[in-house]
Amino acid sequence: MASLAKDFFIGLSNNDFLNQSAKKFGARFGAERFVAGTVFDAIIPTIRQLNQKQISCTMDHLGEFVTDRSEAEHAKEKIMDMLHQIHEENLDCHVSIKLTQLGLDIEESFCIQNVEQILEVADACDVFVNIDMEKYTHYDSTLKILKLLRKNYPNVGTVIQTYLYDAEKDLSDLEDVRLRIVKGAYKEDSSVAYGSKDEIDKNFLKIAKKRLLGSAFTSIATHDHHIINELKKFIAEHQISTDNFEFQMLYGFRIDMQHQLVKEGYRFCTYIPFGEDWFGYFMRRLAERPQNLNLLVKDAFYTEDNKLKKQPVVIGTVVLTLLFCLGKRKKKG
Ligand SMILES: Cc1cc2nc3c(=O)[nH]c(=O)nc-3n(C[C@H](O)[C@H](O)[C@H](O)COP(=O)(O)OP(=O)(O)OC[C@H]3O[C@@H](n4cnc5c(N)ncnc54)[C@H](O)[C@@H]3O)c2cc1C
């Protein structure tokens, strides 16, 4: 059942028609719980509030799988504007980018040019840039591009997905690179990735521990309290400096735990997605944890004193039925 729900939401996340339609609506149907807004200006107060609570942020201007040059250039401009604003507003904040948003599926050299221009501005603004890791089909090219970029721009890092069999092998090439460790969010074939939670968790712990014993900065990005608790013990046993790592979680997830980690003296960073292209991101979050639907249903259908709201029931039922039908008809190959 969990696997069916996962396949269903991942299918929706890849659906072109739904992604395009969703842009016209703005973040709706509960997505606003996990997507901070559509424009950067409007999110600055949220970043300030988090910074005041000793939480740093990484901003993701949502968008991926771009196939149009002008769209990729537009995304680049938006990211560069954001870098200037982070600098001018003196925010404790860095930026996460996706290569497919910047033209990787159009032409590799075009994508590299776009990222170089971003890194030029990031350098001038003294802001770190992280390249998010996407589907396995882009894995080798992402690592290759990172290596090339780092010759001129040391202030760029990436992500290791511990569901990949290759993760540990590739770690040794990235010893001096700032890395984020995650489990991995995409549906991958068993020829390249572990499928069971046990195997993925085991690999996560192995890789995170290895990194924590090294000298480059590591972001431990998970909402999994079992993993966090085991790593906290490891960090204490090995007297690892809290300057060498941070915990990261997504905006809107386990907020109590985010604050608790800060209270315990750990560095913490919240990953904040924003923008019009929210649908694929939102569907992947539902795929990871279908229980997130419970939260959304509760928010959408019930008032604070637990009374049923009438109008959203009708709208919600229509929307979910539509999503289901369109997801089946327009599923991408
Ligand atoms: C900051 C950040 C950046 C990321 N960047 C990328 C990226 O670049 N590329 C990529 O592929 N993926 C990325 N991801 C997504 C990641 O790969 C996982 O898909 C996602 O984090 C879900 O896995 P998890 O480690 O949080 O734990 P899960 O395996 O989803 O959850 C493990 C357990 O933790 C508990 N739990 C989890 N969430 C909750 C909750 N909300 N409330 C209560 N209990 C909960 C439950 O007990 C659950 O069984 C990122 C994730 C984060 C946090």
Automatic annotation (TrEMBL):
Keywords: FAD, Flavoprotein, Nucleotide-binding, Oxidoreductase, Proline metabolism
Domain of life where this protein originates: Bacteria
Keyword Nucleotide-binding: yes
Gene3D superfamilies on file: 3.20.20.220
Cofactors: FAD
InterPro entries in the cross-refs: FAD-linked_oxidoreductase-like, PRODH_bac_arc, Proline_DH_dom, Proline_oxidase
Keyword Membrane attributed: no
Pathway: Amino-acid degradation; L-proline degradation into L-glutamate; L-glutamate from L-proline: step 1/2
Catalytic activity: L-proline + a quinone = (S)-1-pyrroline-5-carboxylate + a quinol + H(+)
Pfam families, per database record: Pro_dh
EC number assigned by the record: 1.5.5.2
Domain Proline dehydrogenase residue range list: 45-292
Residues annotated as signal peptide: none
Full protein name: proline dehydrogenase
Organism for this UniProt entry: Oceanobacillus jeddahense
